[in-house]
Sequence to fold (1152 residues):
Amino acid sequence: MAVIKAEIRSGSYFDSAVLMQLQRSMAQLEGIQDAGVVMGTEDNKEILAHIDLLSPEVKAARPDDMVVVVRADTEAAATEALGKVEELLTRKKANVDQVKRPKSVEAAVEMLPDASWVLISVAGRFAAGVARQALALGKHVFLFSDNVSVEEEISLKKEAAERGLLVMGPDCGTAMISGIGLGFANKIRKGPIGVVAAAGTGLQQVTTRIHQLGSGITHGIGTGGRDLKDAVGAATFLMALDVLARDPETKVITLVSKPPAPAVAEKVIHKARQINKPVVINFIARKPTTRREGNLFFATGMDDAAALSVELAANPPDLSVGDDLPVKKFASGQRYFRGLFSGGTLAYEAQFLLEEYVGQVLANAPIKKENQLKDSLKSEANCIVDLGEDEFTVGRLHPMMDNELRVRRLLEESRDPEVAVIMLDVVIGFGSHPDPASELAPAVAKAKAEAEKAGRYLEVVVVATGTDLDPQNLDNQVAQMRAAGAWVSSSNEDVVRRAGSILRALNQEVEAEAVFTPVDLGTLKKELMAINVGLESFAENLTAQGTPVVHVDWRPAAGGNEKLAAILERMKKFNG
Amino acid sequence: MAVIKAEIRSGSYFDSAVLMQLQRSMAQLEGIQDAGVVMGTEDNKEILAHIDLLSPEVKAARPDDMVVVVRADTEAAATEALGKVEELLTRKKANVDQVKRPKSVEAAVEMLPDASWVLISVAGRFAAGVARQALALGKHVFLFSDNVSVEEEISLKKEAAERGLLVMGPDCGTAMISGIGLGFANKIRKGPIGVVAAAGTGLQQVTTRIHQLGSGITHGIGTGGRDLKDAVGAATFLMALDVLARDPETKVITLVSKPPAPAVAEKVIHKARQINKPVVINFIARKPTTRREGNLFFATGMDDAAALSVELAANPPDLSVGDDLPVKKFASGQRYFRGLFSGGTLAYEAQFLLEEYVGQVLANAPIKKENQLKDSLKSEANCIVDLGEDEFTVGRLHPMMDNELRVRRLLEESRDPEVAVIMLDVVIGFGSHPDPASELAPAVAKAKAEAEKAGRYLEVVVVATGTDLDPQNLDNQVAQMRAAGAWVSSSNEDVVRRAGSILRALNQEVEAEAVFTPVDLGTLKKELMAINVGLESFAENLTAQGTPVVHVDWRPAAGGNEKLAAILERMKKFNG
Fold:
């Protein structure tokens, strides 16, 4: 019959490495079956219960109590083990290297004034306070600690944005700055790819794959996994993206995130679009609709993100595509898309793709019910009408054979002062009209001329589907449509994306851009020096990488007793 | 002041090409501003109202009435125009080539018994009847007509499945069989790609792009846009896929669809997975999570589908990947996945990818709320636990530093007789445990041995994240885990997909496969001959392609009067 015995220590602070060491030492004592040394949170008590280490004292422990519990063969063994706690803790302390260490962040900064970074891995409830001290001293913060509230995160990041400093975290596992790893970090070759990640192991996975593929990175900037949630709004992510955009050594930027809030993901993508570098994006659970849109490259997973980044760094893509958009020609108020299709599938694909650019797209045959156009004969907002739908073809030829309804509708749409872009399909081949462009092209020319007379500019874009062997000949049809002033491609996707890009530019509100003081690129490029507060092993790792580091022998104020700490804080303010 | 005047003809049947011709002729008459010649459906009356061609007589017209309406400068001009209807119709008839034509499908088959195909483009309400006649005569049906009910479609396709015949449609715009286009079809080079499309212009767009890229097709089989809806259940699509799988000339199969019903899309993909050829899939609005899974290649759009198909035809991929799955080693009842992660992003990506293979995946940090694991300490069904989550790390080291909780949990999971696959991550680098495999590998070996003793097989799969430059050395960690019997890769995606493939194989129910008589491949490959019922231009197009065709001079029974037709039908049955 096993015996469970526990000791509760209130108001003690030990870092989690010390707790683990103590637990291991206890578990190895004679007659001890299992041991647990943890803080007394509800989650920890559940884990202790699960592994049969719960006792009434443990149940009564509070979150800031240290719980030492053993399951022993006999009462005597349990008592003896608990009697050794003090000795084991002292032995651990004696092992610690006795070099003189500063007791505060301020004192550490005096010892190493050129440090640009403070690494923080103290228990969550103390972490924000330490981070605030670091920011006040003008240092970037690598905040490994978790169990920090989102309110604290927002407040820290606001202060950092004002000061042009990065707060990586909380719960930031990894960063790699100019070849030096902070926290959990792999040794990655230097190279042309810069990574921003709201994803700790995401950053490790992508950068290790980049290394395995023979390439390397400039910087890997972690932001903490909550940075792309609505409340935080990509505060650190946007600053990191901005500094990598300005870094001439970063040729490709790669963005990784745990499942982001959709609106925040779009905000980041919007910012990325304005950068004159290829940007590879892999946000988990945000399925891409395309491999490429302008300078943006969408990956299907972390492997794919790494491979795409390496490929783009080796073979830089042409980023000038889409520079010819006629955005400035439109009159004010022109802002809508009207698609008049004869092909149902072309119309569906257009709906699907266009939604990314303009939000809701109404249709007479919508992909989603909520986008049903009320009256197929009356266009509204951005909308797509498939004139090959059953409603239009009872006792009437299909619109690929008979252009009459489309010509009428085209002229009607072009008179709407809110319409900016009209899209048509010209589908040729056996069965279709013998020369559709001969009827559609004059209508396009007329529509454009009328719009011009009314002081507007009308963009007509056309997907031409067919081959050089078709009776109508594709090139001939394309030439007629172009002569009438239409923009023509044989790729439906290209046509829709061009229309989408124009509409997005027209509808771009002058957004309240996230305001922040830009990060000084020099602080990332100069020799990295750091101050470490919390897990000692993180300081050891920096030393192993040849990085100057000062480890702070940090203790919470009042030994972690929060009431007392609050009194001390008030007294300090009062005196200061 | 314009005058609107109309004439209504009841019980007349004219095909839509005749109606269009008449309308154009009327509109060109002296003093006529606009003309409309349509069947009197509600949709058509709305269109007439929209273009100001509505009158009280038009309003009163019924769906099977022919409406002739004009808007004229004067009463006299309107009257004169309507007076010419008969003459214009007769003139149109006189233009028709007077070769002796069969009046029925049966008679046409007698004239051209080797025809394998019947093209049907009569008005929707008569189309199913004609299709049924064609099936009874053992012919494939290309059913261009729209406005055919889904009930009729199901019934026709059921009959076709029994007979091993294809019903392409209703509302099938396009098919290309051995180089001959049916309906709306482009002239596409012959080549190695076979296409199945529940998408008319989708088939045209993809095949024209294939042609433009220098490749070509064997067959392009249309199914009608509703074939992948729940009610129809891919009836034609599965038969078409099956016949292309058996065609030695088809090296790559490409599948295209308008937005499909999700369950039917998965049914098709399931079937496609069993084919020993590369299959490229582009179902609009079904966003892919990967570029490749086994023999399946997922495209982001129609352009991408064409490009991928051409690429795969030119450079056949290795399809043997995944042939080594240990599916037969498991005991009956083993069916679940358990993921024990230290890396949050790895865990999220695993959730996201695994869902495709096993449906719901529970997690302590789920992507979607509904997948929340009730108790993080108790696994259920397929689930993923991130042990780096806040709940596990208060006053405890992160699981990348301390393997204790994971080792305990691994042994616990391995004792669950329903567990088949356990996934771990091993993340190395600065900050991580100095040799995680030294603790995890023995636990894996123990878990596998215990399972074996209990008569089960346990697959442990591991993603190893790190580099050759890391202090722990990636190769060393991989070697230790492999020696313990784990399957290891440095790609998270590869590991998850392997696990997913095993689980899918274990959970594969012996599905009620769609039962059909296979289509005779020979009917697609022999010289195409066809019977055409409906639009004369479709017969002309076949003739232009050098294809033998018999056009049926088809009229609805009782001149389209449905009551009378029903009486005749009953009498026929009674007499027959």
Remarks:
- The first strand of chain A starts at residue 3 and ends at 10.
- Chain A has four domains: 3-95, 100-171+516-576, 174-321, 327-507.
- Residues 306 and 356 of chain A are 24 Å apart (CA to CA).
- The longest helix of chain A spans residues 436-453.
